[in-house]
Design brief:
Elements lengths: L2 H26 L7 H23 L7 H21 L2 H19 L2
Length: 109
């Protein structure tokens, strides 16, 4: 792939991303109310995405040894506990990731 083709591909990706992000603004700007289906999706999708991310993160869990499930379990408990404690998503993600990395690199080798 030449440099020109790379720049063209990047431009296409930027245009498509911009169009997708701007579509709701242009489509719903003339309406007084947002359609019920869009409101329902806005309420449902964040929880669905979190469930998908949890499943994706836990897909590698195995129960054949302690190191296969204990680090993931502890990291999940730390993430959920810190979110319940402080209600800060970023803090929970960072704490859970840090605990997991420490466990797999230092404790369960």
């Amino acid at each position: 792939m030449s440099t020109k083709e790379v720049y063209i591909a990047i431009g296409i990706v930027i245009a498509i991303t911009f169009g997708i992000r701007m579509f709701p603004l242009f489509f719903f700007s003339r309406r007084n109310t947002i359609p019920k289906i869009v409101r329902d999706l806005g309420n449902l999708l964040p929880y669905s995405m979190m469930a998908l991310l949890v499943i994706y993160c836990l897909r590698t869990m195995t129960f054949d040894s302690v190191s296969g499930y204990l680090p993931l379990t502890i990291a999940c408990v730390v993430t959920a506990g810190s979110y319940v404690w402080k209600r800060k998503s970023i803090l929970s993600i960072v704490m859970g990731t840090a605990v997991y990395m420490i466990l797999i690199q230092q404790v369960f080798r």
